[in-house]
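Lay summary. Proteins are chains of building blocks that fold into shapes, and those shapes determine what they do. In this project we predict the shape from the chain. Here is one chain we studied, written as its sequence of building blocks.
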Amino acid sequence: MKRLTILLTIGILGLTACYAPSSPQPVATAVVPVEPTAVIEEPATPAPAAPAVEIGGVPAPGTLVVDPSVDLGPISPYIYGTNYGPMHAVPIEMMPDIIDSGFTALRWPGGAWTDTVDMQPFQLDQFIWFYEQLGALPTVSVRLHNGSPETAANLVSYASDKGYGIEYWSIGNEPTLYEEQFNESYDAERLNREWRAIAEAMKAADPSIKLMGPELHQWNSSLATTLKDSAGRDWMTEFLQANGDLVDVVTVHRYPYWSATNEPATFDEMQATAAAMNAEVAFLRGLIRETTGRDLPIAITELNSTPTSVQNQPASPDSFFNAVWYADVLGRLIDEDVWMVNQWVISQRSTGLGLINGFTIRPTLYTFRMYKHFGDQQVYAASGVDNVTVYAAQRDDGALTVMAVNLGDEEQTVTLDIAGTTPAEAEVWLLDKDHNAENLGVQPWPADGLVTLPAQSVTLVVIQ
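And here is the predicted shape, written in a compact code that computers can read:
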């Protein structure tokens, strides 16, 4: 049987994100890896494969199906974003690694910094230099809590006069936590009133800008589980009713695993949170349509597995498994046509949340490097394999790209069925515990389409 196998031979030798709430919110042997080898086993008599799926149906067990003829539309280029700010400095020595990771959107200043500080023009100047190095779309947040409409409008005018090209602006960060954070009354009514006053002043300063909001600190999949203010009013519903005419992009934050005792998540819990993302976005999209009567783009402007300081655990944000989890989450958000996603956060030393820690790259940065080679026109893909998801897209150069994510703790050999064609060969990229988004080269395509996915891995297949 002819098989495309990624053989991993091993020689055995003798801070928190933004502002963390105080209560849950609705949820010694050394080994030397050897370079991977493509192993081909010749079949005795290969038989023609039967169709694994009817388009739009469920793939056969053990099968991943991709149909390039079913075009699902463009993928937003801003899915691959992160957060950056004065508290998240990137050492100049790390800039080549950051630039190489392909970030497409930068939210600044990410987190709670702007809740207590009025941004100064010189700070905006510094941010412009940074985002221009990356070629990313910038979004800028102005102060909401005790913020001034005049101050926000002046910053917009400054950016416009300087020709900075900042189109997307948000107002405040996680107002759903202000009551606890500042020990004062802060409800949905106050948010809506103060947000609108600042928004109108900003639009008067530059009518061409687009506004993002309301930057809620969590999201969920039903009205019973989304955030409510002290009077029991749903924050998002109230915001959309009051300001749905002004907001251009609806924004939430999502940290699906939150522990008041800073306990780390398990692998199973992480898998469950990834699977829930589809329903959470679908609920938000439906709520927007129902409340405003129109469709608005959705952005998850802070995203990680947890907002807490937990680190150095098997499934904490600095772990290798978090990189695999994030690859699956991005695929799901692509499926749900999310417009922008900003990972939290580009750099942080005090927690496991940063993509870099000083001069050290953390594993989730390599997830971005995998998606850097992914296409921008989504096509149909579906999985009939437990713990494995698959996403596919065409690139501008005509290549078909297939991203297979194995969240399970066991290696899986699966059939990868490309409808309508049998490729001669494919370029393979691998992210697993031994390979940091490495190019394994061009490998012959197996006659029976069997591909082996290492445990807890992300495999990208590029077919020209």
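What the prediction tells us: Confidence is low (pLDDT under 50) at residues 1-15, 22-54.
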